[in-house]
Amino acid sequence: MRVDSWIWSVRLVKTRSMGAAACKGGHVRVNGVRVKPAHGVRVGDEVRLREAGGRERIVIVKRVIRKRVGAPVAVEAYVDNSPPPPPREAVAPAGIRDRGAGRPTKRDRREMERLRGMEG
């Protein structure tokens, strides 16, 4: 089975064409080798997919699925060995203004910069 079709069918990418583009861009590796979209995937292969945020998904193929399936069935087709995602930093919300309050004044902007620690 094609690698682009398999990563689409197990819901690692949204569309098959996105899977093909990821392969062409060098973001997909099977057993450590960059592959083209038509490369075959077999049970036991390690598939590494680098996502947009820099995160890498590492999955071991347990089952080859030809059609796109629901999420509960899709997770049974692979073993996910991906590292956990980094924790989200608690970011203070940028200056929240009332709706319709218009653009911030110079005084407001200086206050927001002071809060963010960008004094200068």
Task: Pick out its properties.
26% helix, 120 residues, Structural Genomics Hypothetical 15.5 Kd Protein In mrcA-pckA Intergenic Region, Chain A
Structure commentary:
It is a single chain. The chain has 120 residues and is of the alpha+beta class. The chain has a domain of 78 residues: Structural Genomics Hypothetical 15.5 Kd Protein In mrcA-pckA Intergenic Region, Chain A (Roll), CATH 3.10.290. 26% of the residues lie in helices and 16% in strands. The chain is built from 4 helices and 5 strands. It has a 5-stranded antiparallel sheet. A hairpin with a 5-residue loop joins strand 3 and strand 4. Helix 1 packs across helix 2. The longest helix is centred in the C-terminal third of the chain and has 11 residues.
Question: What is the CATH T-level topology of the domain at 3-80?
Answer: Structural Genomics Hypothetical 15.5 Kd Protein In mrcA-pckA Intergenic Region, Chain A
Strand numbers in spatial order across the main sheet: 2-1-3-4-5
Please report the number of helical segments.
4
Class inferred from helices and paired strands: alpha+beta
DSSP strand tally? 5
Element-level helix/strand string = HHEEEEHEH
The end-to-end distance, rounded to whole angstroms, is 58 Å
* Share of helix, binned: 25-40%
Biggest sheet: strands, sense, closure? Answer: 5 strands, antiparallel
The mean pLDDT is: 86
CATH homology group of the domain at 3-80: RNA-binding S4 domain
**Class of the domain at 3-80, according to the CATH hierarchy?**
Alpha Beta
Radius of gyration, CA atoms, in whole angstroms: 22 Å
Measured by DSSP, the beta-strand proportion falls in: 15-25%
CATH architectural category of the domain at 3-80: Roll
Envelope shape: elongated
Low-confidence stretches: none
